[in-house]
Amino acid sequence: MLENHLIARRSKSTMEVPLATQTKTVPPPTTGGARPADPKVSLRKPVLAGTVGNFIEQFDYGIYGFLAPYMATSFFPGHDDTAAMLGVYAGFAASFLVRPFGGIVFGRFGDRLGRRNALAVAIILMGALTTLIGVLPSYAAVGFAATMFLLVVRLLQGLVQGGEYAGAVAFIVEYADAKRRGFYTSFLSVSVFLGLLCGAGISALVATFASDGQMETWGWRIPFLLAMPLTLVGLFLRLRIPETPEFRALQEEQRRASEEGAPDQVIASRPVVDALQNQWKPILIFAGFAITNAVLSYTWMTFLPGYLQGDDVNMPKAQALATNFIALAVLLPLLVVSGMVVDRIGRKPMLLAACISTFVCIPVAFKILLAHTFAAALVAQLIYMIPIMFISVALTVSMAEMFPTKVRYSASAMAYNLGFGIFGGTAPLVATFLVSATGTIWSVPIYVCAIASISLVCVALGFRETRGTVLAADKYHR
After folding, report:
1. What domains can be seen in the chain, in order of their start residue?
2. Do residues 75 and 220 lie in contact, with contact meaning Cβ atoms separated by under 8 Å?
3. Sign of the four-CA dihedral 371, 376, 381, 382
4. What b-and-e string marks burial along 251-277, b requiring 16 or more CB atoms within 10 Å of the CB?
5. Under 8 Å CB-to-CB from 178, ≥6 apart: which residues?
6. Which end of the chain is more exposed for a tag (fewer CB within 10 A), N or C?
7. Cα–chain-centroid distance for residue 432?
8. Spatial separation of the C-alpha atoms in residues 99 and 156, rounded to whole Å
9. For the residues 146-161, what does the mean pLDDT come to?
10. pTM: predicted TM-score of the whole model, two decimal places
11. Under a CB-based contact definition with an 8 Å cutoff, are residues 162 and 256 in contact?
């Protein structure tokens, strides 16, 4: 009776607590695993841990894109500048082409042993490989071996990068409240362009204080060497964050199933095979609309600055980069706003808006670009980034929502890398080739719009809205 009396008193005192106070102490509903009580506060560390690796990855791309002319003279024969630049861009493309294989390796790791563990391995490997580029011997020192060394390192980087972004998206989405997933994953999109901006900015800073001769011999190496301290900070942040609630829920279900002798395997023993067998349709759908984001982003960030500095426009390097930096600075806060809009109206309307706006904005941007002035280049890039603003966050958050928890890492990594690996890495190479082959810059917007037309069909006919979806469920095969 005493026990019943104490339970009754405890229940009564709980009922007497004001509703507002009770709400603060009750965790929000979850699809599995314990979710932190106050997402606004508790999600800061997971978001930071998730974005830091992607920042370092894009920091490398920013360096590589900005320093491509200097690296061309270091790793390729100097008698043909165009061939040397194409060689550097080919190394850029090669790192993307192997990313699907990296997605398979890290996807299996992340679905079997946890997202945090896979991301910790990815960040340390990425930092080590980026730093290694800064100490590679030059063509003048070892001949063609220098070219091969660079290619091998870029291929290894591509394998690691294949597991980074998809894992970071899964990590943040599996922590986030269902109503604010777009907002929180918007910081991943921000980290993409912020990493590119910082990489290019630091490279520009080094180039300001070093002569062209110094940049060609040793100056270009400095930004690559800065990757290691950034990596150590990122590793520290990731190791301090627990595994995601969704994956911990899977682990708990697996533990209970094992104790009860149940034959079901909660954690997939073959996540890659399971993803290919059961998730092939959403994988292809996602890749179909991801290619527009890939081509838009890397044509803008990697090809366009070089084109502005080339013989056709002949804009001073400082001005060409300034237009790019200003446009990036404008884009970053707009991505956060885009995340809020994605949470309010859904993913599909934003994806459709991105594809449709590409048909208008990209030709207009290139038309303005032909004025060959600083103002024209800036306005053109501000217009160019409109479809990027629409697509970036919507694509990022839907990448995790389209697949169930047990194969999310593997399936999303394959889907993302299939689109970006083939079309993102080749974007500057294809754009450079098209201009060279056709003799006109208009071949580039035609190519971008053709890609957007494919994505429009994929979104309109194949994509199902994922806003508010239950993460553990299989949306496309229920």
Report:
1. 43-244+268-477 (1.20.1250.20)
2. no
3. negative
4. eebbeeeeeeeeeeebbbeebbebbbe
5. 31, 468, 469
6. N
7. 23
8. 9
9. 90
10. 0.83
11. no
